[in-house]
């Protein structure tokens, strides 16, 4: 039995090594992964946000990736994987970038759900955990807010970053129905920045008090904050201190006193 288990572990290591070699091979094409590369045919991206230039299939085939950073000695696999994701989702991924061994995908708000679904369910992705959802404020931009998602793949021990954008009067689809762990992260982004997430089951403030005005992490929020008058007055309330165990406490107290004093 021990030899059989060792043989199975050896075969497992060989399979994993072959899979990694296939992902990092320069001759591997997207078709060789055994799955359809464009499973989503929703609404294509029509307009990119300022600063997010759109990748085209023609430019990808010609090798002219002007918006992606140049590969380094430690990140060629990330560039290959990013180009693979781009070939799978050309209608939804606007831009890819690799900086210090970190892969980032730039998508439009209407592409958040299909991209997240692909990254969660695809065999070569398996990003099933959301580590963080945060916001960034750029007041001078038309779309002043940047929503950043950090995903983790336990199967491949890798991380990926997805970025989208929003304005003060626009919303971003909520990923809470897909990733329940993003619930409080999106509530925090709403509380601190005022970013709206459509489809969130309970979008309300989570850090500030009830009736708080403003969003503290916006660049235009005053550093001194807003001073609110403190109201100490409270209307009369009739507190009910009765307890179902009160008679039991009295009986136990009487018994303890009786035991100390004695029957006399």
TrEMBL record:
<dbReference type="InterPro" id="IPR020396">
    <property type="entry name" value="NADH_UbQ_OxRdtase_CS"/>
</dbReference>
<dbReference type="Pfam" id="PF00329">
    <property type="entry name" value="Complex1_30kDa"/>
</dbReference>
<feature type="signal peptide">
    <location>
        <begin position="1"/>
        <end position="17"/>
    </location>
</feature>
<dbReference type="InterPro" id="IPR037232">
    <property type="entry name" value="NADH_quin_OxRdtase_su_C/D-like"/>
</dbReference>
<keyword id="KW-0830">Ubiquinone</keyword>
<keyword id="KW-0813">Transport</keyword>
<dbReference type="GO" id="GO:0016651">
    <property type="term" value="F:oxidoreductase activity, acting on NAD(P)H"/>
</dbReference>
<protein>
    <recommendedName>
        <fullName>NADH:ubiquinone oxidoreductase 30kDa subunit domain-containing protein</fullName>
    </recommendedName>
</protein>
<keyword id="KW-1278">Translocase</keyword>
<dbReference type="InterPro" id="IPR010218">
    <property type="entry name" value="NADH_DH_suC"/>
</dbReference>
<dbReference type="GO" id="GO:0005739">
    <property type="term" value="C:mitochondrion"/>
</dbReference>
<dbReference type="InterPro" id="IPR001268">
    <property type="entry name" value="NADH_UbQ_OxRdtase_30kDa_su"/>
</dbReference>
<dbReference type="GO" id="GO:0016020">
    <property type="term" value="C:membrane"/>
</dbReference>
<keyword id="KW-0520">NAD</keyword>
<keyword id="KW-0732">Signal</keyword>
<dbReference type="GO" id="GO:0008137">
    <property type="term" value="F:NADH dehydrogenase (ubiquinone) activity"/>
</dbReference>
<feature type="domain" description="NADH:ubiquinone oxidoreductase 30kDa subunit">
    <location>
        <begin position="105"/>
        <end position="226"/>
    </location>
</feature>
<comment type="similarity">
    <text>Belongs to the complex I 30 kDa subunit family.</text>
</comment>
